[in-house]
């Protein structure tokens, strides 16, 4: 329900499975107003009158009301983004632009983002009678389930140019659970605690950018704390990841100041774990914070990525298979990282859900770029192979606030 906090951050966790119209083709569902009306009843009115909902406008606070300390009545506006953030309560939905967000981890898996960028720039979704995945991803992240109508010329920077299936203000517990999360820090600064990969993909894609709007669910408002107390709380709550791409400890002062590929380091094990989703592990509903980093920490001592050619689809797939089989094959009570066991981190008791390598999620992952529906890995490697140059390296850890000299060029 609005105002009710969902699960804590888990660094781009996979949302709990839902009964989604993605399971069928768009051709079967477009224009099915009666069916949408039935869904609306089932979800408590999530789709008004069976009509698609317009994507979220740029509103400042879309759930709950400003706290009493703000001295304003419900619905009042504020003079700055920081003031609006300082008035947010746990569970509120804040509309932000991507350039307002501060990361809480120093690294991302570049190949995970390359998969998204490769798919976003491809026309294969449309050729398969669907909408481009970036619109589904934006709607889901914004708490509006998935895209309902995407006319020619629609763009992420213009939310009014496309529609989502769930109206703003009609979100359900399920659609809110799929949203990314933010903690309000001192001065009203916004610290992203889940969604670094998804939102970086929105920032880097051709019709996105730093001024792209998105709504985030507020995990906590810590704006009243001093800097030291704020970071102590963030670490106590495990809302910050202070390890670099080689699993070495860093300080909070070494975190990037903004989103963007040029500002992050590339953690290859974070990408590896992403590609093992639904093959070696499934994110549980109560997923641990920074779940994929915990698995990646454990895999570093068990899978030597240096022995694989990560530019080769076959070799990369071999690495994914080895990692996912290792994850699935370890006893469920084995402590993986941070005191969490394999079962607590979503270990799958049967590799690839008991299916043959040619089937299941591993079979989908193996599909080449020439396939009508390429696998995630194929999109990632194809996109990476066409980059004119590697993204500029971030400033050295130890020099806070010094991102790469140039941002990533698409």
**Spatial order of strands in the largest sheet:** 2-9-7-8-3
Helices and strands, in N-to-C order? HHEHEEEHHHEEHEEHEHEHHHEEHH
How many DSSP H or I helices?
A: 14
Mean pLDDT: 83
Cα shape: globular
Share in helix = 25-40%
User: Biggest β-sheet: count, sense, barrel?
Assistant: 5 strands, mixed
- Fraction of residues in β-strands: 5-15%
Descriptive report:
- The protein has about 400 residues and is α/β, with parallel strands linked by helices.
- The chain is built from 14 helices and 12 strands.
- The protein has helices spanning about 25-30, 35-40, 80-85, 110-120, 125, 135-140, 175, 195-205, 225-235, 270-275, 290-300, 315-330, 360-365, 375-385; strands at about 55, 95, 100, 105-110, 145-150, 165, 180-185, 190-195, 215-220, 265, 335, 340.
- It has a 5-stranded mixed β-sheet.
- Helix 4 packs across helix 14 (about 375-385) and helix 10 (about 270-275) packs across helix 11 (about 290-300).
- The two termini are about 40 Å apart.
Which features does this protein show?
410 residues; alpha/beta; five-stranded mixed β-sheet; three-stranded antiparallel β-sheet; 14 helices; 29% helix
Short description:
This protein has 410 residues and is an alpha/beta fold. Helix content is 29%, strand content 10%.
Topology, element by element:
Elements: H1 26-29, H2 33-42, E1 53-54, H3 81-86, E2 93-97, E3 101-102, E4 107-108, H4 110-120, H5 124-127, H6 133-141, E5 147-149, E6 163-164, H7 173-177, E7 181-184, E8 190-194, H8 196-204, E9 213-221, H9 227-236, E10 265-266, H10 268-275, H11 291-299, H12 313-329, E11 335-337, E12 340-341, H13 360-365, H14 376-385
Parallel strand pairs: 3-8, 4-10, 7-9
Antiparallel strand pairs: 1-6, 2-9, 5-6, 7-8, 11-12
